[in-house]
Amino acid sequence: MKKHIFNKTKWSIAALLLLSINSVFAQSSTSSALFESHDIGLFLLVLLVLLPIVGFFIYTGLSIKKKSTQLIQQKFSSQSIKAEKYLTDLDFEQVRALLGKKNNETHSLKSSGLLTVILLFISQFSFGQSDVLPATRESLMTQPGVLITLVLLFIPLLVGFILLVTKLNAMLTKMRTKNLMQEAETLAEMLDNGEVMQDYTELERREKALSYNLNNDELSGKEAPSDEKGLLKNVKSEHDMNFFAQKTKPMPRPKIDPNLTKLILAFIGSAIFWLVLGTSIGEYVGIKFIAPDADSLSWLSFGRLRPVHTNLVFWGWASLGMLGLGYYVVPMVGNGPLASLKMGWYSLFFINLSHILGTISLMAGVNNGGGEYREYIWPIMSLFAAGLVLSMINYLKTVALRKTKEIYISNWYITSAVIFLPIIAVVSYLPFWQNGIGETILQGFYMHQAVGLWFMFFCLGLLYYFLPQQLNKPIFSYSLGVLAFWTQILFYTLIGTHHFVFSSLPWWLQTVAIVGSVGMLIPVTSGTINFLMTFKGSWNKVSNSYSLPFFVVGVIYYFTGSFQGTAEAFRSTNLIWHFTDFTIAHSHITMYGIITFIIFAGIYAIVPRLTGQEPPQLMVGAHFWFALIGLQFYTIPLMIGGTFKGLSWAEGKPFIDSVVLMAPYWLWRAIGGSMMWISHLILAYNFYKMMFATKELDVKEEAFKILQQKVNLSQN
Amino acid sequence: MDFFNDHKKLFTAAVVLFSILMIFVAIFPAIENQTNNASLPDSQPLTDDEMAGKLIYISEGCVGCHSQQVRNVDMDKTWGSRPNIAADYAGITRTSFLQNTATLMGTERTGPDLTNIGVRQPSLDWHLLHLFNPRAVVQQSIMPAHPWLFDFKEKPNDGDIIVNVPAEFLQGKTGKVVASERVLQLVTYLQSLKQVKLPGGTPNPEFLYKKEKKAAEDGAGEAEDLDGAALYAANCQSCHQQNGEGLKGAFPPLKGSKIVLDENPEIMLSIIMQGYNAREEYGVMPAVGTNNKLIPEEITAIMNHERTSWGNTGRKVTTDEIKKLMEALKKPAQ
């Protein structure tokens, strides 16, 4: 039987290999039709990306197969354990114990039918994956950009799948241990019965031979082990089968000034408020795609609420969230104090004021014109800019006050970002170069610099602090961070016009933007490598931390979202995707998948430290999964629908056809959006819990308090 | 390195690099384009009413869904006769003390492009009904309704423009729907959106990425190859509706229409090409054929679709017949 199973395994490997080889060949045979010869490089790239994936599937397939085979084997053989195998390998204690016992009892074994079913399903599953792979390649699309996007789309799904498989794998290992344990019990009972034992003389001889022994403590001494350096923490005393890992409490950090704590929490609290409000509006606006007659109030009409949503999540949520985290990071990495708390409060006040006024004015129909994210009129935007400038001065002074000689890379990014954004805003609001097409050139510049040199830059700075801190190890490469810093400034500044490809803007400017978009691959690749290599060797920490999973998602989307941006900038892909809902999916992948997830992570990393109160772990998990799954339901349908929309236009079909075909995708977007929105409500609840919730009594702390009181009393 | 440990030098370097690039890709091209481009000679500056309409267009956030740019790619041919050039926008200056210049080029096309809407859909009646509730004219539309741009009056004054809104879209409100001054201004603005001819024989810039034309297998079948239903949807349906029944009090039915079923297609063709305004109870029909530059083959396909759909049993016309009639139509106009 054993041999039979082994053979089966072998065949399955062969089948897997064949399938993968087959699919690889299938691609190369179609490649000549799909691509012209100049696209060979791209084909190789896709192949390079896919090969490790296929390899991974084969590996997991094999390992799961192996484990399940072992388990099945155990199950079948457990009723007739090969007692001889164990008997020849008994140690002294075992021999003696065996000799000492001669009782008779019967027993029965439990069988685990359910397990077999699960295992069979899993082994099926491992085949299923190899079937799925070619489906991605069979795509009829011939555009390199489309192919790149498909691959990118695949990456987060793949990572999610890897997580799942890893967990299943771990569970199987545990199950196997459990089964082995059962087997041991069976063996013990059989030995107990003596039903396998006929001749005891051989055993007795063995006992003598084995009784010669060293004391075993010649080298170690006789003292009990002790942890004198205090290295062991969070030692678990209970072991059970947890699918969800128990999260460890954050390590205590040096206490920071309680007044600074208040400022940071005020920033984060405001940010969360704008997030909930801004996404409630976003949610409502999304629903209007399916139910356009939901209301007939001018203040709640789609055209007016859309900019309210974008401005609140951009300048309200993300900007305040980042600034709040920045107020923690900037003094921390310089080992010095914050320059001015007062300035921080004023900054918060001005920014919040700008959003209150801005929201009202947009809903009343007062806006700046057609530019996206430039909808606040200048008096309101100047309040926002004033708040930013205050924080900028504050950060700069704090950097100047630092106690370390070097400026840690986080502060390069963060401080530069707060310097750049006011410049960008001022240049884009000044009227001197806004006539005619000048307005559009500035618009392209503005909307993209705000994204790349403010949000992305700031968040990279946060990553360079939080990742090493959370993983408790240095960043993989400081130099890569420096390279990414300069190249991001160099290339990102150029790419604004790629929002207006084929428009009346100068052709050379469009080309510069496309070239810059490709150049962005340099900082993005070096950043991603840096972060992933920092994770390397510490992946086990991800499962028992509640901030690290958010960081992992942020880093993955940093890679896929940015690469997608490059893929979208090509003229060929612009033909299909420009003006469609694909753009909206992309902006959510980047602003949500990257920026928002990193801020989520930062909040969960520092707020418990600042307040000393943990969020409910179940709710953090709920937040994470709702946000992540919601994002998938939001973006993937929009990308598919957007592609169909673009193709419908290209075929010259009546415009209304493209509206009708989008309906199901808009429905899915609303569903995904609702999930994301629910996750924000959970975040607000978690934040409340971290701020105000009654703290569970810490027995140790209380005991020492009582002790201290007693001491005080006795001293009096 | 000392350079990197001095915050003044480090951040100055970053800002200098950024600023140089910014001047190169934003400020310099912007200034160059605003000084070196002028409005086309044929273009008309916006009148006061049109400008007021544009302000409403801005205030209602129409640009979120409607672009105003015809790109130089083939698929944008639907939206205009030529790709837009920088000169088309050159006359647009700062909107007001509080508001920036608004070229309204847009980045999304959840709704149709409006660069040439004044030519494509000049009908006031259509725009008013459409703005009151888009679903009254285009059933599948998802555009927001704008009822706050209208007044409800029990007894309209003389000179009030009454919009014949089907009862289901009144949402229980009583009285006549009267177009406010604001909505009339908005429609005036929309009607003013027309592409201007390039001056004196300047050739139009080319549309790129042309669809490869499938070689016609036989010349005779050309008219049948065109999809009459799709052309009808693109050019006629927003008023006459998909079921050909039009809208009561606004747009006449084509189903069972005498003109459509007439053995002689001459009147039908002249209405398509030159428009029609003879009947009190209905809105004005614009010169759709001329405005949208339909070719005889397309007109034939549309006419045949109208003559044989919704239970209509008119005679099919041929392309040659239509070509001759079209030439005849042109002569008296000259």
From TrEMBL, chain A:
Tree of life domain: Bacteria
UniProt keyword annotations, A-Z: Electron transport, Membrane, Respiratory chain, Signal, Transmembrane, Transmembrane helix, Transport
Cleaved signal peptide residues: 1-26
Cytochrome oxidase subunit I profile domain sequence ranges: 272-716
SUPFAM superfamilies listed in its UniProt record: Cytochrome c oxidase subunit I-like
TM segment ranges: 42-62, 109-127, 147-166, 263-287, 312-333, 345-364, 376-396, 408-433, 445-466, 475-495, 507-533, 545-564, 584-606, 618-640, 666-688
Name of the protein in its database record: Cytochrome oxidase subunit I profile domain-containing protein
Organism: Emticicia aquatica
UniProtKB/TrEMBL annotation, chain B:
Pfam families in the record: Cytochrome_CBB3, FixO
Alphabetically ordered keywords of this record: Heme, Iron, Membrane, Metal-binding, Transmembrane, Transmembrane helix
Ranges in a coiled coil: none
Residue span(s) of domain Cytochrome c: 48-194, 223-310
Protein name: Cytochrome c domain-containing protein
Transmembrane segments: 12-31
Gene3D superfamilies the record matches: Cytochrome c-like domain
PROSITE patterns attached to this UniProt entry: CYTC
Top-rank lineage group of the source organism: Bacteria
PANTHER family: ALCOHOL DEHYDROGENASE CYTOCHROME C SUBUNIT, BLL4482 PROTEIN-RELATED
